[in-house]
Amino acid sequence: MPYWLEDISVYPLVLLSIWLLGSLVLLPQDYQPLTFFRIFAKQLAVKVHPDPHRATSQQLISGSLALALVMLPTLALLAPLYWLSDWPLVLDGLLLYFCLDFVYYRQQSHKTALAISQQQNSRAKDLLQPLVLRQTQSLSSAGLCKATIEMLWLRTAKQWIGVSFWFLVGGGLAAVAYRLLLLCNQEWNDKQNNFRYFGRPASLLTQWASFPASLLTALLLAFLTDITAAFRQWRQALPLQLCLPHLLILGALASALRINLAGPVIYQQQKNQRQRLGPTQLPTVRDLLNALRLNRQFQLYSAFIVFIFSLLQILWLLY
């Protein structure tokens, strides 16, 4: 083996390979290992959180212990595999592949856009509902387009960029830990009344862990479109009651597509009065298709940046 290969970090090249593999070979959701963890997280919440009216401190402790019970045994089982494996990078690649399940959501977004364009709003609502926490049955065509755009880009930041970021930082185990944290936050979302306190530990950790990916996504999106308008939108949105990762992404997206995002949402029959973000123009199917096209461009630019970084790293070590 050439001497420089012993020092170079090959994680960026592994990341590019898995990005390509994931776009070509989509694992069916029924065979996706994360499906098991979703079921396990739901059943665990039923066991350890039977009463949402318990004391707040008890719910916070239960939520913290449940999160640890999902993550720690899984990581403890995976870690010894690295000591036994002769090809730890292959194991890293497999773990990353299983954690990167984003392509499915883009496909569903395409199907939703097609249904809306054919005025099949009932089908569009059924397609979108499993992908979002909000209720979709009362949404209009504009509401369906807005919800799909937001879902697509928030998942891009958290599930695609977020998993990739933590993989580059800590390898396959870090990617698995982050993805399980994200999964628990989705299953025990504290926007639901019964998980308001039980899901708080997972929510707070997810906001912290996903912030670097949200910042990177927002900045790259702004550079690809209109960075001046994005900064203007972020400055105007600061007083709004939105969590910072969502504010960064939706602000850049609203300025890029020149549409209105955020706004009121309904969770469990209760209306949550979120502030609106961006211009007054409501999204249409055309905007949804533009968001999908921009998402593809964003991923290509991301791959190009990682490739250039890998190339520069090799040249630096060679010369």
Separation, N- and C-terminal Cα atoms: 18 Å
User: What's the pLDDT, averaged over the residues?
Assistant: 87
Sheet-strand content, in percent, reads: under 5%
Number of strands: 4
> How many H/I helical runs?
11
- The low-confidence runs, each spanning 5 or more residues with pLDDT under 50, are 1-7
Number of domains: 1
Please compute the radius of gyration using only Cα atoms.
Answer: 20 Å
Helix content bin: over 70%
Tell me the structural class: mainly alpha
| Largest sheet: spatial strand order | 1-4
Principal-axis shape equals globular
Largest sheet: 2 strands, antiparallel
Care to give the gist of this entry?
This protein has 319 residues and is mainly α. It has eleven helices and four strands, in the order H-H-H-H-H-H-H-H-H-H-E-E-E-E-H.
